[in-house]
Amino acid sequence: MESDAEEEAAATPAAAAAPAAGRLKGSQELTVDADMREMAKTAAWSVSSCKAGNGVAALRDDNLDTYWQSDGAQPHLVNIQFQKKVQLQLVVLYVDFKLDESYTPSKISIRAGDGFHNLKEIKTVELAKPVGWVHISLSGTDPRETFIHTFMLQIAVLSNHLNGRDTHIRQIKIYGPRPNPVPHQPFHFISREFITYSTIR
């Protein structure tokens, strides 16, 4: 999960519809909590535009040398649609200002909803010359809101560094909570011994 070191102390002004998450720089390590799992392997992915040879598949190929490149007007959109309603906690992007310069996103909006017709902005973040994995938590201001429940997630690149027009994103991962291995059990036991004795026989 992201550390405090990944965010600068000074927060940026929030957008009207959603809180900003500070200015993010990125981390060389992709680290998430053990109780999270990658959720978007079976989702339907699409983008608003792409340059030939740099399409949506590059976002999911686990190769940091490839990238999606947009080819159109801003905002540049990545759409992730799930077959059923899912719980999501974390979006992680790999971006590299040293390699991509003006193609590197500087402001990103995260939106969620049942479909394109009712997407709502839930978070905006600003990036400060990021190099590495950028972790964007989807939790709300209420500590009880640790995840969102949605059919669709949209990642919108609102602007790029150095006033760049098109954008590069090298990887995107979407994480949600692991299912509880014990049905109807409010607590999430991890060790085999706890799971064994967690139900009445």
UniProtKB/TrEMBL annotation:
User: Which InterPro entries does the protein's record reference?
Assistant: APC10/Doc1 (IPR016901), APC_su10/DOC_dom (IPR004939), Galactose-bd-like_sf (IPR008979)
In what ranges is there compositional bias, type Low complexity?
10-21
Q: Pfam families, from UniProt?
A: ANAPC10
- Similarity comment text for this entry: Belongs to the APC10 family.
Which species is this record about?
Dichanthelium oligosanthes
Give the span(s) annotated as Disordered: 1-22
For this UniProt entry, which segments traverse the membrane?
Answer: none
PANTHER family from the UniProt entry: ANAPHASE-PROMOTING COMPLEX 10, ANAPHASE-PROMOTING COMPLEX SUBUNIT 10
Q: Which residues form the DOC domain?
A: 15-201
Q: Which GO terms describe its cellular component?
A: anaphase-promoting complex
Q: Which UniProt keywords apply?
A: Cell cycle, Cell division, Mitosis, Ubl conjugation pathway
Annotated protein name in UniProt: Anaphase-promoting complex subunit 10
- Single Gene Ontology BP annotation: anaphase-promoting complex-dependent catabolic process
Q: What does this protein do?
A: Component of the anaphase promoting complex/cyclosome (APC/C), a cell cycle-regulated E3 ubiquitin-protein ligase complex that controls progression through mitosis and the G1 phase of the cell cycle.
CDD domains in the record, alphabetically? APC10
